[in-house]
Structure formats: structure tokens, C-alpha cells
Amino acid sequence: MSLLCRKEHQMLATLIPLFDDNMYVCAYSVFARKENHFLNPNYEGGARYDGAGTVHELEVVSSMGVGTLSGGKEVFVPINQFSIFAEISLQCTVPAGKVVLLMDNSIVPTEQYVKRVKELKSQGYKLAIRKLQIADFEPYKEIISQCDYILLNHTKIEISKAKVYFGKVYPNVKLVAVNVDSQEEYEELKKDGGYDLYEGGFFRMPVKESETEVSPLKVNYIELLNVINAQDFDLQEAADVIGKDPALVISLLEMVNRMALNSDITSIRHAAAMLGQKELKRWINTAVTKELCADKPSEITRLAMIRAKFAEGLAGPFEMGMAAQELFIMGLFSAIDIMLDKPMEEALNMVQVSKNIRDALIDNKGDFAPLLNFIRRYEDADWTEVSRLMVIDDINMDEVYEAYLNALKWYRDLFPQK
């Protein structure tokens, strides 16, 4: 049975970036919650033993496929005192070396746990541990010595001392500062030095120049060439292929904007129809010839595309089914300011989008704003607020989770599997 069909999980999950001193995204951590936090405020999220030894967060990793993360980044998956004994290798469909099993202090340094940790290490998994106090470092030495990362609460650690200690005792363990709440905190921690990676609520979109370039997807261009060079090709089919690539969509809408002022574009199909077969074919052949040799998509492309498909998938639960294509464009262009390195209003003036999209992206108002706000809270793993919004709007948790997994799977399936 497909993992995507297992709807009994009642879970929410998202990917949170881990980044370095240059704000380059180096890895992701799966943040999950298996209950509605608003209805169950005392529930503690994280990997959970359900009697079958299932690590539910691996469902997200399998749906996503780490091969689609730009640069083949690692993914941190939380495990606890129960799920550490699960048959992880049977649940994980991605290479073990790309998975970092993130342990917590429920896993104690007894012989049983130390043996299991060493087994997982021998199977090729990377390991990390969190929620340890300074007093735990010595008792946990057999477990820490097997780890690739240790996550530290930077507010409770004197990093200058920690750097010396770990450099001497565990020279191969990378230090990760968690709960970095502001840009100012991040800058201070950078200045002090010592941390290899950071996780912070202020940072959810990559801003490093090399990460924000809007690169094409080669497979889409080849597919598009085949479509438009067929005799009497289907405009809708071409539009659907264009919709898989932000670089193509931006270029298309810029062209339509120059041709048709004051015309609200509500879908990519609409834009393609306005251009017509002859002009669309001429533009595609030019764009494909120019871009076919470009590298794999950047991190910002990946995030924008997943957000776009997630927005489209939420159209039903938010009772905006008729606007699904428009919501896709809204999600895609929600990072266009970063893509083009311009203020949002100026960036949107380069393309032709509807008033609903402009209102949501520029002023956070209008019909689409609540859905965009929901997505942003979801991406932040703000489960309390996400759960509150689901209760208020009578939105089913399964539908939200399925829409997110489908977005990951859709993006994964854009690439030929090696």
C-alpha cells in the first residue's frame, strides 16, 4: 500500500532548514505533530512508538525523496526511546547516508541503547542528539562519540567553552545552535564562532545568492520541446509543463504582461492561450535553447514549487476549489521578491497576476491571504496556530497533511529517478 494512502496517521509535518554562517541551507529537519495541538495542548510532538515500531516522519522523507533536495542535503528525522528499535531500514526508501537520526534525552546511555546506536551507525545512518544538559555530556560519552551532530540550546551554552570541550573530546561532532529566534541572535552567534549549523524561527527561505537563482528543470524543457514541436500541439498540455518550472512561468508572464496590459491572468493555461500557439512555440524554442544546459534547480526554486503545489492542494479544504490554479501561481510567486532580488510589489509588476494574488502577496489581505498565512504558519511548524486555524475553519487535518505530502511527491516526480 502506498505511504500516501495511509490516512490513519492524523499527523502534520513540515521541513525546517538548517543553515550555516552564510545562510546556506545545508540540511532539513522534519518537524511533526501527531495530534491536533489546539485540542490536545499537553501533547508533546515528535517521533512516537505506536505498537508497530513506526517512525512516521520517515513517510515525509520517502514522499519527498532526498534526491530532489538541491545539493543532496541531509534530512534529520527524530526518534525516541521506542522508535529507535523500529525496523528503520524497512521504512526508509532513501539512502541511509542522507538520513540523520535525531535522538533525544529519552534515549539513555545504558548498554541496550548504546548497542542499538552502534547498530544504526553501522547500517550507514548518521546520528544526532538533542536536549542534553551540560551535566549529561560525560555520562552520554558512548552515545555522543557515535554522533555526527549535537544540537545545543545556545542560550544555555557558553560556546567558547563548548567549542574547546567538543574540539578536544569529540572532534568529529558538528555543533548545531537551535532556537535562534532573531537575525540579531544569529549575527552574535556567528561572531562568537563555534557553531557549524543553526536553526532559527527567523529564517525559512534561503537568501544566499547562489541559492536564489531561478534555474530551469532540464527534464521539463525536453518534455516541452516534444509537446510544442508536435503538429497542432495542445496549448493546455504545454501550459501544464510550463507550470512545473518557476523560471518558465516568470518568463511567460513577463511576455504576456508586455502584450496585454490590464488583463488579469488567473492561470498558466490562461496566459498560454493569450499568447497563442505560434508565439508560444517561438518563445519556448528560444527559452529552451538558451537554458537547456543549466544546472539542477536551486533551493529557492524547490521551496517555491512545493509551496505552490501545497497552495493548490489546500484549495479544496479552504473551499476555494475554483481558484486552485490561481493559488498555485500565488504560491509560486510568494518568493518572487527573493528570486528577482526586488521588493515584492516591483517584482510582481514584472508579471501579470490577478488582484487576489497581488493583495495577498503585497498587503497580506483579500480572499487568498488566509490561505497564504496558513501555509507560512505550517512551514514554521507553528502547530498551535495551525491547529487553531483548522478548528476555526473546520479544516480536516488529514486533508492538510495529504496536500503537503502530495506537494513533496509531485516535486519529487518531476525528476527522473536514477
Folded structure, characterized:
With 418 residues, the chain is an alpha/beta fold. The chain folds into 2 domains: 3-204, EAL domain (TIM Barrel); 208-379, Hypothetical protein af1432, CATH 1.10.3210.10. It is built from 20 helices and 8 strands. The protein has helices at 57-64, 88-91, 111-122, 141-144, 159-169, 183-192, 209-212, 218-228, 235-242, 246-259, 268-275, 277-291, 299-313, 324-333, 336-340, 344-348, 355-363, 369-379, 383-392, 397-412, and strands at 12-19, 25-33, 74-78, 99-103, 126-129, 149-153, 174-180, 197-200. Strands 1-2-3-4-5-6-7-8 form an 8-stranded mixed beta sheet. Helix 8 runs antiparallel to helix 9 (235-242), helix 8 (218-228) packs antiparallel against helix 12 (277-291) and helix 10 packs across helix 11. The longest helix has 16 residues, at 397-412. It is elongated, with a radius of gyration of 23 Å. The two termini are 23 Å apart. Residues 1-8 and 41-52 have low confidence and may be disordered.
